[in-house]
């Protein structure tokens, strides 16, 4: 798969559940930096055909943007094994995007899940 997938509230959960590694670009047509980031994102999608690259149009999908607390666009999010491991607003240059993808590929998801469980335990247990 070398192109991006338009994510909507109808297909978002299924896409994230069915794929181990999903990059998500929250964007809008009126956003200049979003339009500048689009070709960088598309090129990364072509260079990483084993990953799923999704786009959420925040104008068309305000519920998704709200669910993830998106306050500025573009925002890039990476979800691995149904865990958001990266979220950052701003258009990344090509080299930075490649670096972020590389770092996300190297994550030990067992360690990430353990850290998330510990964090949730602390938040829930301290009340």
Automatic annotation (TrEMBL):
<dbReference type="InterPro" id="IPR005746">
    <property type="entry name" value="Thioredoxin"/>
</dbReference>
<dbReference type="Pfam" id="PF00085">
    <property type="entry name" value="Thioredoxin"/>
</dbReference>
<dbReference type="InterPro" id="IPR036249">
    <property type="entry name" value="Thioredoxin-like_sf"/>
</dbReference>
<dbReference type="InterPro" id="IPR013766">
    <property type="entry name" value="Thioredoxin_domain"/>
</dbReference>
<comment type="similarity">
    <text>Belongs to the thioredoxin family.</text>
</comment>
<feature type="domain" description="Thioredoxin">
    <location>
        <begin position="1"/>
        <end position="106"/>
    </location>
</feature>
<dbReference type="GO" id="GO:0005829">
    <property type="term" value="C:cytosol"/>
</dbReference>
<dbReference type="InterPro" id="IPR017937">
    <property type="entry name" value="Thioredoxin_CS"/>
</dbReference>
<protein>
    <recommendedName>
        <fullName>Thioredoxin</fullName>
    </recommendedName>
</protein>
<keyword id="KW-1015">Disulfide bond</keyword>
<keyword id="KW-0813">Transport</keyword>
<keyword id="KW-0249">Electron transport</keyword>
<dbReference type="GO" id="GO:0015035">
    <property type="term" value="F:protein-disulfide reductase activity"/>
</dbReference>
<keyword id="KW-0676">Redox-active center</keyword>
């Amino acid at each position: 798969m070398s192109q991006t997938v338009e994510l909507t509230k109808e297909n978002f959960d299924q896409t994230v559940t069915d794929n181990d590694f999903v990059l998500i670009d929250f964007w809008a047509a009126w956003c200049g930096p979003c339009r500048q980031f689009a070709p960088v994102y598309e090129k990364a999608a072509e260079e990483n055909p084993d990953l799923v690259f999704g786009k959420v149009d925040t104008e068309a999908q305000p519920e998704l943007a709200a669910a993830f607390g998106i306050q500025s666009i573009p925002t890039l999010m990476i979800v691995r094994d149904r865990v958001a491991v990266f979220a950052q607003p701003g258009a990344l240059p090509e080299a930075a995007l490649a670096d972020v993808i590389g770092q996300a590929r190297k994550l030990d998801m067992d360690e990430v899940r353990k850290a998330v469980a510990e964090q949730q335990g602390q938040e829930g247990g301290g009340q």
